[in-house]
Amino acid sequence: MLDKAIDRLCRLFSLLMVACLAGMVFGNVVLRYGFNSGITVSEELSRLPPAGKKACFVLAHLLMLWLCWLMARGGWQQAVMAGLDKARK
């Protein structure tokens, strides 16, 4: 029961984030081409100093490595469970 609630909450959060991303991109395109301006936050983030870009680069790669570790650990756990299940049959 709790697993289903967490799954639904994560799916809802993902849906909201994708909708926000699509809305922001669409709004920025309309503002840029229609009114010759854009969303200032996106403009400012693209002009980070080199130290900020490097920090974002390192943070993004550390997050990616952590997610790869989670996938590998989960895959290993699934393989172990499948092996134990076959051994019992």
Architecture overview:
- With 89 residues, the protein is mostly helical.
- Helix content is 89%, strand content 0%.
- It is built from three helices and no strands.
- The protein is elongated.
In short:
This protein is mostly helical and 89 residues long. The chain has helices at 2-35, 40-45, 50-88. The longest helix is centred in the last third of the chain and has 39 residues, at 50-88.
Query: Span from first to last CA?
Result: 28 Å
Largest β-sheet summary:
none
Structural class: mainly alpha
Task: Note poorly predicted spans.
Answer: none
Average pLDDT number: 86
The beta-strand count equals 0
List its traits.
89 residues
What's the layout of helices and strands?
Blueprint: H1 2-35, H2 40-45, H3 50-88
